[in-house]
Amino acid sequence: MTNFEIFLHSPFSKSNIDERNNKVLLLQFILSEIFNAESEHKNNTPLHNIFFPTISSFYPLDWSTKMGPLNKVVEHSLLLPKAFPEQKQAIKIFKHALTNTTNAISNYIDMPSENFELQLMLYLKQLYLMLEPLMIECKSDENFLFFLLKNSGKVHSITYPNYLMNFFVKNCGHNVDSLCESICDKFHNRGFACLIPEIKAFIANLKLNA
Length: 210
What we know:
Elements: H1 22-42, H2 69-77, H3 80-83, H4 88-110, H5 116-130, H6 132-137, H7 142-150, H8 152-158, H9 163-171, H10 176-189, H11 196-208
Helix pairs in contact: 1-2, 1-5, 2-4, 4-5, 10-11
């Protein structure tokens, strides 16, 4: 029998994930779902809507199966080794942290315990930080940097204030003004000068809150 995998929530597959820009988009999808999990948790969303531990035996053909943000992260993460072949150790560490997170949620659903609300926030922060090596690999991609800028509030909510400023200075080889100029130039050269005011506003906000 031929082995195959079905991806319900990722537009990618192992046959196309190594195409240009796809790995950057995959990383953005994973980060977005981690942000969604954190937001839903802060809004007191039931944990089984953040991660649904019991998958139907008919999955993925059973479309009634609930899929929370962390279920989607689990699915997306299956493509990480193919998308980032140079980051095997970092991906292994991330997947271990992801398993710990989903197991903790499953255990809590079965047997609630005190202080899990804070514990889950720490798990989600760890998931984000475990992806840093992959983010650094994408540091020269203006689309990814724009994604981080647009989501700076979510990034700082899940990590700490000034995280992005520190990340840019440490990993992008620029002060933020030079970084802003570099991002703007790349978008201008691609015909997206309309984004420049928005990029400058995001950078100005980072500096204001530094």
